[in-house]
Amino acid sequence: MESDSLTSRFTIGQEIATFLVSCGLVPKVWEESLRASNVESFTVNESEDVAYVTFPSFQRLEDFIVNDNKCGEGNIQTDHGVFSGCLNGNDEKPALIHPGALTLFLHIMEKTDFQAKLQVYTDSKQKKLKPIIFVGHSLGGAVATLATLWVLGKRLRQSSPFCITFGCPLVGDERLVEAVGRENWGGNFCHVVSKHDIVPRMLLAPFESIANPFTTVFGYWQGKNVPDSLIQDASRTLLNHVLVSPSSPYRPFGTYMFCSSNGAACIENAQTVLEMLHLTMQSQHTSFEEIAQACILEHIRYDSVLEEGRQNSIRGIRIAKSNSESSYEIGISSQLEAIGVGAQNDHAQSALLKAGELENEYNENVETLAIKLSVRQSSMAELEWYKERCEKEDGSTYYDSFKKQDMKDIHANLVRVKLAEFWDEIMEKWGGHELPSDFQSQNKWINAGNTYRRLVEPLDIAHYYLTTKTNKSYFSDGRPNRHKVLQEWMEAKEKTRSSRRQRTRTKPASLTENSCFWASVEEAVKDLNNLNNGQIQKLQSLEKFERDVTTMVNALSIASDVFLEGSSFMMWWEDWKEYNQKQSPGWRSSLYEIMENESWKG
C-alpha cells in the first residue's frame, strides 16, 4: 500500500514553491537583490521588522576566479578561523569550499563594517532581535550562503538566519552537505534556480575549463560591450562542459526552488537536486542553441521568470502524462511539469521516485529502531537494578562485581551483549547511509546513546580486562566503535550548546560522565606496579591521572560508587598514597585533601 508521506511529498514541494512565489516573499527578496546590484560589498535594509542583508551580484570577479587546481576547491578551515569547527564531514575531515567564494566573503568580513552592523541583529543584549534574511544573486548568493553559515555557527538562540539566493553557484563539497545535514541547517537555505541558468550548474564542470568563457559572460552581465559572437561562443562552451557532467566535488544543500515558465517546485534531497540541475538544462523540444542563449539570459531575468511561474502556478498545471492511476505518480508528474522537465521524462521520474523511496526508507528505519529502543529500555533497567544491587548487597561497584562473574554477573553479561547488538545495528545502518543525515544530532538518540554508554561501557571495560591475555590497553585495543561514535556524537552536540547557558551541577553524577574512567583506573594500576618496579617514566602519567580525577570530583562528574571501600579505584588510591608518602612523608595534594575530607560526597 502506498505511503501517505510518499504520496504527499511532491505535492507539498510544489505547494511550498507556489506559496513562496505568490505570497510576495521571493519577489520582495529579488527586489532587494536588484537594489544592491551597484554597491561594493553589502547593504542592510529593514522592512516590516525583517533585516535584509544583501550582497551584490557582479563584483570582484578577479577574486572568484581560481586557477590553483582542476576544480578550484579549498579547505574551509584555512579561513582565519571565521567559521566554527562544526563544518566537518562525517569522517571528521573539514569541508571543502570554493576559495573564490571564501575570498569574497572574507574581504567583506575584514575590510568593511559588516560584523559591526550585524552585531545589532545578533547581540543577545538587544531586547528584540529582528529576523535576518541573507540575500544574494549570482556570486552574491555564494557570499550570502557563507554569511548564513557564519551566523549559524555562532549558535545564537535568539537569531536563526534565513538565506535566499538566486542563480547561486555551488559552494561546497559532500562534507559540507553532511555538516549542514548533521546540524539540521538545510531548512535555513532556499536557492532559487531558473530552468536554464548556467551559474548554479557551472561548478559541475572543472573550473579550469569554464574560467575563461565565464569571464566573458560575466562582462556581458556587467553591461560591458562584448561582441555577440564572443558571448555565443562562451555560452556554448559553458553549456558543453556542464552537460558533459564530469566528476565534480561540489554538491548542493538546502531547499532548491526550481522555476520555469510553467511554475515552480521545491526539492530538498541533495542527490535529486544534483540530478535536476542537469536534467532541467536539457530538453527534447528545445535546441542546443536556444538553451545556450537561455542559460545566459535567464541568469539576469529572475523577475520575469518568477512572474511567469507565479501566474502559471496559480492557474494550475495540465499534466501531459495523465494515464497514471497512482496519486504518488501524479504528484511527481505535476512537479516535473512545474520545473519544466516534463512529466514524460523517465530519468527525472526515476530520480524523484528514488528520492521519495529513500526518505521513506530512512523514516521506516528510524521507526523500527525507535521501537527496538523502547524494548531495550527494559534491558537498561535490568542493568540499573544490577548496579544498585551490587552496591547495596555486596558493598561493591558493579564494575568490580562484574569481574567476579557470579550468577548475577553472568546474567548482566547477557544483557550487555544484547544491548551491544542493538547499538552495533545502529552503527551499521549509520555507516551504510541508511539513516537521515541529521540522525546523529537528534536529541532522542544522543541522550539514549549517552545513557547507554555511561551505564554499559564500564561493563565492556571489565569484560576486556577480565578476558584479555595481553598487556595491551582498552583504549588502543579493546574499545568498541559504537562507544567511540556515540561519544563523538555527544561531544558534537555539546559544541552546539557551547554558546548557551549551561546548568551547573549541584550534586555528583549518578553515572560517571567519563565512560572510560575504569579503563583509566586499570591503566593506572599497571603504571603504579611498573613504577614500583623501577619504570620512573610512569610517574608522569600517574600524576596526570590524579589531576584528572581531581578535576572530575570538583566538577561533580564522577559517581559516588567509585569511592566505595574496596573498589579498584580506592585500592589504587591507597597504593598511590603509600608510594608518595614513602617518597616524601609530608606529601599532600588536592586529591589527598578531597579523599581525607570525603568532599567527593558533594
UniProtKB/TrEMBL annotation:
Keywords: Cytoplasm, Membrane, Nucleus, Plant defense, Transmembrane, Transmembrane helix. SUPFAM superfamilies: alpha/beta-Hydrolases. The keyword Membrane applies. GO terms for biological process: defense response; lipid metabolic process. InterPro entries: AB_hydrolase_fold, EDS1_EP, Fungal_lipase-type. It is found in: Cytoplasm; Nucleus. GO terms for cellular component: cytoplasm; nucleus. Residues 381-583 form the EDS1 EP domain. Residues 103-203 form the Fungal lipase-type domain. This is Fungal lipase-like domain-containing protein.
